[in-house]
């Protein structure tokens, strides 16, 4: 009986330690920080921990005043004080960037057309009568600076939508990129 007592007590001690430590491991996993996203970088200096984490976790490369996070489909633009002011979200895969896979601002989707974007960024026709319908949200400014894309600037939202067509009247144009400004 004495010969079995020692091995059984060791097995019981190991089992006790395993069950006692298991909840702590589960709690540690829950306490892990959330993955950094582009929103956590806006308006912060490059030296900020959340910005540094985003750059490191997305293997970004610096090019002038940009951090190019090609695999994430994001480019961050910093001002002269090294504060992140704009996040470029690439809706479509390109030669240099993967398509951005995260959540887009204001309920936008990468497959939205210009008509869908204007509807999503619109406002009620009559504020006190929601049943009256929805008015398209036209941009505050618009241009085609490169003659390849149409840029719709919604300053009231801090967002610029770049479409894959230069035509100002192409309501079927698709989103090429979204610039989120801070």
Q: How does the SSE layout of this entry go?
A:
Elements: H1 2-30, H2 49-57, E1 61-63, E2 66-69, E3 74-78, E4 84-90, H3 114-120, E5 123-124, E6 134-135, E7 141-143, E8 150-154, E9 159-163, E10 175-181
Structure in words:
About 18% of the residues have low confidence. The protein has 182 residues and is an alpha+beta fold. The chain folds into two domains: 32 residues; 144 residues, no CATH class.
* CA-atom Rg in angstroms: 25 Å
Number of domains: 2
Q: How many strands, what sense, and barrel or not for the largest sheet?
A: 8 strands, antiparallel
Helix coverage percent of residues?
A: 10-25%
H/E topology pattern: HHEEEEHEEEEEE
Shape: globular
How many beta-strand segments?
10
Nearest-integer average pLDDT:
81
Unreliable stretches (pLDDT < 50, length at least 5) are: 4-35
Strand content: 15-25%
Class by helix and strand content? alpha+beta
Which strand order do you get reading across the main beta sheet? 1-2-3-4-10-9-8-7
Q: What's the N-to-C terminus distance?
A: 74 Å
Number of helices: 3
Short description:
This protein is α+β, with helices and mostly antiparallel strands.
List keywords for this structure.
182 residues; alpha+beta; 2 domains; 8-stranded antiparallel sheet; two-stranded antiparallel sheet
């Amino acid at each position: 009986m004495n010969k079995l007592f020692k091995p059984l007590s060791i097995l019981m001690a190991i089992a006790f330690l395993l069950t006692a430590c298991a909840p702590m491991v589960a709690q540690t996993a829950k306490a892990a920080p959330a993955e950094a996203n582009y929103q956590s970088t806006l308006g912060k200096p490059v030296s900020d921990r959340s910005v540094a984490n985003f750059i490191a976790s997305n293997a970004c490369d610096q090019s002038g005043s940009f951090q190019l996070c090609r695999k994430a489909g994001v480019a961050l633009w910093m001002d002269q004080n090294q504060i992140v002011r704009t996040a470029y979200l690439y809706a479509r895969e390109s030669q240099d960037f993967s398509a951005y896979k995260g959540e887009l601002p204001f309920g936008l989707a990468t497959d939205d057309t210009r008509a869908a974007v204007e509807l999503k960024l619109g406002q009620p026709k009559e504020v006190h009568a929601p049943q009256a319908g929805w008015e398209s949200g036209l941009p505050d400014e618009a241009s085609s600076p490169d003659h390849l894309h149409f840029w719709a600037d919604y300053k009231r939202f801090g967002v610029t939508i770049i479409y894959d067509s230069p035509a100002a009247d192409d309501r079927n144009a698709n989103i090429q990129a979204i610039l989120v400004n801070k």
